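Before going further, learn to read the protein records used in this course. A complete example follows; check for yourself that the lines match position by position.
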Amino acid sequence: MAMKATGSRTKFVDGGSEHHTQYIHRVKLSNLKTGNMYLYRCGSSYGWSSIFKFRALPDDAQAAKNGVRFAVYGDMGNDNAQSLGRLQVEAQDGLYDAILHVGDFAYDFFRANGSVGDEFMRQIQSAAAYLPYMTCPGNHEENYNFTNYKNRFTMPKYEDVQNLWYSWNIGPAHIIAFSTEVNFYLQYGFAPMKHQMEWLHADLAEATKPENLAKHPWIITMGHRPMYCTTDDNDDCTKDEYFGITRVAFEDLFYKYGVDLEIWAHEHSYERFWPLYDFKVYNGSVDAPYTNPKAPAHIVTGSAGCRERTDKFGPNKPYVAFTSTDYGYTRMTIVNSTHINMEQVSDDKGGQVIDKFTIIKNTHGPDAWL
């Protein structure tokens, strides 16, 4: 190998009765050429890993030419990780530029004194070693104040909030990962909820400045617990307009700044909504609902596979466009500054695309709703 990078290690002690101890190694790679393929291995004189490969993220010009491709899902565990095999192959074949895992890992990291978490990290290595594996926390990461989640991943600005919330730019998109969980687990204090809201306001205000929208017009959020759903489990997203914690906390803020697409998980199903705000549908038109809509698009994609199996749906609602209880995951392609293609892949049906739609927007940011 022609290049070498030296990192650091931190000691992590699991909160279980055995106080399982391990060392987390972090290495920052610099001077990478955008779009180039790199081979790498990890280790020391005590031993080395197998050789892996990854492609450095594209720059804006490369993204504009080729688009940016993602696999998107939540709620994948060790047991019954039904979609994982297909995702491993597609990641290694270069089908994606990054993976977005929208909370709930392993089921659960802390179980068996952290050994379930160790096994999950080994399971996803055959995908995560080949491309950025971007995360946000879910409710199944809560134990010991999210310490397994905080220690096992390294997202942008890790030193500030240990993966709970962050944002990053890729091609024509500004992607915001945040924690719905700080609004639910108040036993850890109100400060995380307050700090995240302050950060979200500042980040969205910065992202929607004209000079930044010109470079990264798509504003996409990923958070675990959805604002809306029609599953029959009485979760927060099934509540009416006055009681949904996630919706009350975030909907007005995201609408104010013109968020284009909101990605959720938590419900073990797939659900696509018409462009939606405050329980009202704001389609672009009858024939082209996602062309210049007047509200954000929402999807729930939490059916990658876990020991809790899939969820059933309750009565349909007028703001729901499509539902499926198949195991699977979502493909998202940011084609350019005006088009995003979305596909839902059914693992039950051998990789068949069971739903697809295209968001087309000529205007982004708050002005999109005018």
Summary: The mean pLDDT is 96.
